[in-house]
Amino acid sequence: KTPLKQAATSQSVLIELQPDCQPLTTPPKPKEILPADPWTPTSNLKMLISAASPEIRSREQRRELSNNTSEVLQAKHCLQEHLSGDEYEKSQPSRKEKSLGLLCHKFLARYPDYPSTAENNYICLDEVAEELNVERRRIYDIVNVLESLHMVSRLAKNRYAWHGRHNLSKTLQALKKVGEENKYTQQIQMIKKREYEHEFDFDGERNEEMARSFGSNEHSEMSFVELPGMEFRAASVNSRKDKSLRVMSQKFVMLFLVSTPQIVSLEVAAKILIGEDQLEDLDKSKFKTKIRRLYDIANVLSSLELIKKVHVTEERGRKPAFKWTGPEVLPSIQDTKLETTSTTCPPPVSDSISSKEQCSKNLFPSRAKQNFTRHPSLIKLVKSIENDRRKIQSAPTSPVKISAITDQNLSAFPSKMAQVPTITKHQLEGQSKKAKEMKMKLSRSALERNLLSPEVVRKPEPPCTAAPSQLSALTQPRAVCPPSHSSVPPAILPHTHSGVSYAIYLHPSQAHTVTTYSPSFMLQPLPCANVTGIKSINSKALNKITTEEGDSQIATDDPTKSLTAKERPTIKSKTSSQRCLKRSQALQENNLIKRYRSDEESLDTSLTFFPSGYLIPLTQCTHGNKAGFSDKEKAGICSLQHTTYSSPIAGNPAFHITPLNIMLSPTSIAAAPVLSTSCLNSSNTSSAQNPSSSVLNFTLQHVGLIPAGVQVPANPVLQHVPVSSQPENVSHSSENLNLQEEKVNKNILQFLDCGGLSGKYSTAIPLQQPCVPKEPQEPQTVTEHFFRTPGGPNTVPSLSANSDGTNRISPGTLYIPQRKLEVSED
DNA sequence: TGATCCCGCCAACGT
DNA sequence: ACGTTGGCGGGATCA
Q1: Burial class, A204, CB count within 10 angstroms (exposed 0-12 / middle 13-18 / buried 19+)
Q2: Residue A94's pLDDT is what?
Q3: Residue A166 in contact with residue A638, Cβ under 8 Å?
Q4: Stated in angstroms, how far is A286 CA from B7 C1'?
Q5: Contact, A744 vs A456, CB < 8 A?
Q6: Mean pLDDT of chain A
Q7: How distant is C1' of C7 from CA of A242, in Å?
């Protein structure tokens, strides 16, 4: 130790003497060179990488670069030896060159994003470590994070299997779900609120307070989330109870997936992660350590291009944060069992179908146990037990995934409510994002919407006000695709981002939805009264995000400003409105919700909501890249997640509609037409937007999305009060569900009647964004809309009632005074 | 400075 | 007993 350290310390000096930190002799070099020179190249590589938009680069490119660079570096090395002195120093592997991120890049370069099942994608840690010329310890860091994403799985000692990104979307879905169940959104808001309240002191009583508040909801300890097919194989092998890095990684990802602007600051993440296990001792050292770990994880995730570093600037200063740049996570479509619907269709993806249930079970298995073990606070334990009990009660027997796990579920009611806004945010946000993302969201949102709907319903209670959340939910429903421009059936468009294609059938009614779907919409409360759903949601909205790419600009201006004026007032009202919920209604809702919840799980697993748009699996890509897809590309067409869906009816996926195209920026209704046009066009159809209603109806009915009698209007766009909700009813078998849905629908309708979507939406922001995203890379194109509501960003509207007794957020409190945040990329 | 985070000690585990 | 994993945090670098 000492020696090494000293070496490190006196590096500069020593280094000069001994270039590689190794013995003076040259020997080491040769080896290094051959394999893949780890360090030297890195600096150059890094430079290059940073220079180029990181996201874009393909792995191959990286490889090339690395190789080239390595060679170059080697050359350098030689030179260095001769040089000695300053120059030499310069060339020395700087710390950066040894960074975990770089190492991870190298690591990833060794394996294809979408490996074919056939090839043996085994990873031998020793070999890798050797080849990359790093201590094994470092490899563990990488592998652990990859494992958390199910990109690799441990087979045995020293041996891992490489899965690449095939499971990524599923994993993300699962994580998102878990995150939602854990109320991460709320937690985040709470933390922010706290921060705001106590500007500075970080530790201290406040923490306790926080912890306490959290405590109830916290379920925190979830264990590792597994996927169906991905269970840890040799149990014996992975007995390590502590999978903290893995678990941390998953939680960290969850935070992104759950927050609306998908930006998470390290500080918040650390607090939440700490909070989960030990609220009590939130001491600095612990916090610091957590942060360190988060950096490790963040580096790997960055290498995977799932996140990128940004800075959030508040009054206090700049805080490091990361922004999700990964794929939008669909609501668990798979979970929902598209299969069900798609009977006709080709078999669903292998895993998705069979394993879903399994997944769930694994998600949060024995958290109590584990937690207990680790951080045995009796209190906590008790709480968790209670929670579990509740879960059990509420939760259906079906071992459904995640939901069961979470304690929060218990409190589901409130929590979900809270979540609603969150979701909305996401969706909204999505708009700004790349088109691809948008499309993803659409599909996702649809699902979510369905799920949420019950909750949504309850919100409307307040007299005129439509809860923003509700609105959002309604509106969001993404998807609508005008798809059809003509007739037809679902088209499948090539997905930009992930390469996934979906056929989306939209309910005409939903069409309008699409339009709506924009963040802007959130801000504006359409409705009847003062609703605004957004604000709270947007806590972050406050922030500005600045990206090199120019996000900043966008963020600064757009949506926010325009909305602001209107919004602010609205926001307040919203809050109040929430508070005002009538109990009776609330109760009803509660019941409804509860019921819903109970069913929900079962549904989740089995079912399917096809809210506005549903996806039908077309084909599945096997793990291999068969289909001729390019594979490596980010696009990763084949990934499981990206299942392709075909129309039930025709079964021919002749057309592809990319969700993206469909989605567009729904910002304003007014815009909608435009969107549709442009988007559609892009997709290739020049035809008018009117889908043939008959076809749609037929399709929907056929699929079971809508009752036989129901007809969907042909022209979705601009229709305010379509039948919309119906689709939700869909094929689900559960009775309860149907009942609930009906209620929901009613509510929705009421809501709509109130004036709902129409007017205000139209007001919304014009859509500027291109419907079709081009390159995935250009995130910037997408405007990120952050809303800065004067009032407060973080307010969570939903929280008025705490059924569980916890309190997490009281309505009033949540409201966070505005702070300005800026996000900037480095 | 504060943000990053490399490095490697050493404990927990497995075999 | 020894090898593998990986938590952890000192302290070096970077910005």
Answers
A1: exposed
A2: 78
A3: yes
A4: 19
A5: yes
A6: 45
A7: 9
The token duo for A655 is 């057309």
Q: Which residue is nearest to nucleotide B9 (CA to C1')?
A: A1
Distance from CA(A157) to C1'(C3), angstroms, rounded: 10
| A615 strand-pairing partners | A504
C1’ B8 / CA A205, Å: 35
Residue for token digits 């360090």?
Answer: A39
User: Would you list the domain boundaries of chain A?
Assistant: 100-197+240-324
Checking if the pLDDT of A176 tops 60, the result is: yes
Give start and end residues of each alpha helix (H) in A468-546. Answer: 468-475, 508-516, 519-523, 534-537
Contact A255, A272 (CB under 8 A): yes
Residue A177 is predicted with a pLDDT of 85
Nucleotide nearest to A10 (CA to C1'): C12
DSSP-derived 3-state class of residue A644: strand
**Residues in contact with strand C, defined as Cβ under 7 Å from any of its atoms:** A 5, 8-9, 11-12, 94-96, 125-126, 136-137, 140, 143-144, 157-159, 238, 240, 242-246, 285-286, 288-289, 292-293
Nucleotides, chain B, CB distance < 7 Å: 3-10, 12-15
Q: How much is the average pLDDT of A119-139?
A: 86
Q: Which two tokens stand for residue A600?
A: 């929900």
Nucleotide nearest to A294 (CA to C1'): B5
| Rounded CA separation A261/A542 (Å) | 10
Report yes or no: A802 and A411 within 8 Å, Cβ to Cβ: yes
- Shortest-distance nucleotide from A237 CA to C1': B14
Query: How distant is C1' of C5 from CA of A158, in Å?
Result: 9
* Residues sharing a CB contact under 8 Å with residue A426, sequence separation 6 or more, in sequence order: A258, A259, A260, A262, A441, A445
Q: What is the largest CA-CA distance in chain A?
A: 85
Q: pLDDT per residue over A673-701, tens digit each? A: 222 223 223 333 323 333 334 434 343 34
User: Mean pLDDT across the stretch A201-208?
Assistant: 46
The answer, yes or no, to whether residue A185 has pLDDT greater than 60, is: yes
Name the nucleotide with the smallest C1'–CA separation from A98: B6
What pLDDT does A584 receive? 31
Instruction: Name the closest residue (CA) to the C1' of nucleotide B10.
Output: A1
**Contacts of A428 by beta carbon, 8 Å cutoff, 6+ apart:** A260, A472, A476, A517, A518, A519, A520, A521, A522, A523, A534, A537, A538, A785
Tell me the sheet residues that pair with A310.
A321, A825
User: Which bases on strand C have an atom closer than 7 Å to a protein beta carbon?
Assistant: 4-15
Give me the DSSP letters along A1-58.
-HHHHHHHHTHHHHHHHSTTSS-SSSTHHHHHHHHH--HHHHHHHHHHHHHS-TTT--
> What residue is closest to B12 (Cα–C1')?
A240
**Strand A307-313 to A821-825 pairing:** antiparallel
Helix orientation angle between A671-683 and A508-516, rounded to the nearest 10 degrees: 110
CA–C1' span, A281 to B12, in Å? 23
As a rounded value in angstroms, the CA-to-C1' distance for A267 and C2 is 40
Cα–Cα distance for residue pair A641/A654, rounded to 1 Å: 21
Tokens of A530: 């003062």
Q: Decide if pLDDT at A116 tops 70.
A: yes
In the sheet that A159-162 helps form, which strands lie side by side, from edge to edge?
A122-124, A159-162, A152-156
d(CA A609, CA A630): 32
Instruction: Identify the pLDDT of residue A465.
Output: 29
Cβ-proximal residues to A82 (8 Å cutoff; 6+ apart), any chain: none
